Structure prediction request, 90 residues.
Amino acid sequence: MLIPCPHCGPRDEIEFTYRGDAAVTRPGPEAGIEAWDDYLHVRRNARGWTVEWWLHSAGCRAVFKIRRHTMTNAIDGAALAGQKLEAVPA
Prediction:
């Protein structure tokens, strides 16, 4: 799988480290124990387009998001951490 680093361009997946689902939001400090339990242990096993965090660990060390289809591994977009990337391709 070729992953498009926003700085370095397409590189082999071996250069990257998966960092998790970018759609998950951290609960606030006032959230109860159930909200934290869900945040830490419950994940959606999506079929289709998802937005994920990746780290270019063997390259420029950039943290960025990609939009990837979980069935085909097709990648339809990439954006740096501060930029917006929707879950459904345009």
User: Anything to note?
Assistant: The mean pLDDT is 92. The first helix runs from residue 33 to 41.
